[in-house]
Amino acid sequence: MCAPHKALWLVSILITVLLLSRSTPAQGPTSDTAAAVVDRAVGVHGRQWTTGELSDSLADGKLMLFGLEGPKVTFDFRLLRKGMTRVHRVIQQPVGELRQGTDGENSWESVPGFFTPAAQGRAMHFLESQTTRSMQRLFNYQKEGLKLRDLGVHDQRRIVEAEDQKGKKTKYFIDSDKSLITKLEFVTREVRDPFSGEIVPDTDSYVFSDFRLIQGIPTPFKIERFNGANKIEEMQFNSVRYNAGLKDADFRR
Question: Residues with Cβ < 8 Å from 117, sequence gap 6 or more?
Fold first, then answer.
């Protein structure tokens, strides 16, 4: 190849490389992508969650507790929610009502003759799942100042992580086809694995299914709760009602 032709050939190769590098940018999760995914989920779940049209909810159902061997016992329960800060779960037990709740400032877990100064452990984590880590808070991520991260796709579900101003992170699993949130998960602590000796995260997760349309809102009537890989609770609702007219007085110990 003569020198002029060789020079033209090298220039052609260089131009091709530059064009390819400009037309195939590196792919990676971005906050814009995560925001778009959440916005689609809001459209499916109902924009009433962001406009203030949904003030509260009242639900009744059965709560089943699980052990390592399977189901242990079942109780009737009522779940009250108001805004993103108030929640009260009242469980009917033989010894009396077990109450777990928060009024936005104080929290509690109590049965007749006994109460804790503040909800702790699993009770506290449950209250967080209904307030500071709830779907509703994710839907209002801009007002709440949450930072979103797209963690990719797993089992046909897009995973979006939201981090609040206190550094608490929550993962939301969103169905890639239906844009319904089917799971939320967060780390409660770090523990040492008894077999490997490594420090691993201990997670609390909630799986949503049996969606039904209530007052125009897709509502999960089944919520399964897991500690790590172990199922510990299942809430099966019999009825759910929005804008039930709940009062602040309904959220007391």
Answer: none
Supply the pTM of this predicted model: 0.85
Q: Is the separation of the CB atoms in 158 and 174 below 8 Å?
A: yes
CATH number of 29-250: 2.50.20.10
Q: From CA 234, how far away is CA 17, in angstroms rounded?
A: 56
Q: 136-172, pLDDT tens digit by residue?
A: 999 999 999 999 999 999 999 999 999 999 999 999 9
Give the Cα separation of 42 and 50 in Å (integer): 8
Per the CB < 8 A criterion, the answer to whether 228 and 234 are in contact is no
Q: What are the structure tokens assigned to 103, written together?
A: 């009024």
Report how far residue 160's alpha carbon sits from residue 37's, in angstroms, rounded to the nearest whole number: 8
Band (53; pLDDT cuts 50, 70, 90): very high
C-alpha dihedral sign at 12, 13, 14, 17: positive
Which pLDDT band, with edges at 50, 70 and 90, does 28 fall under?
very low
174, 181 in Cβ contact below 8 A?
Answer: yes
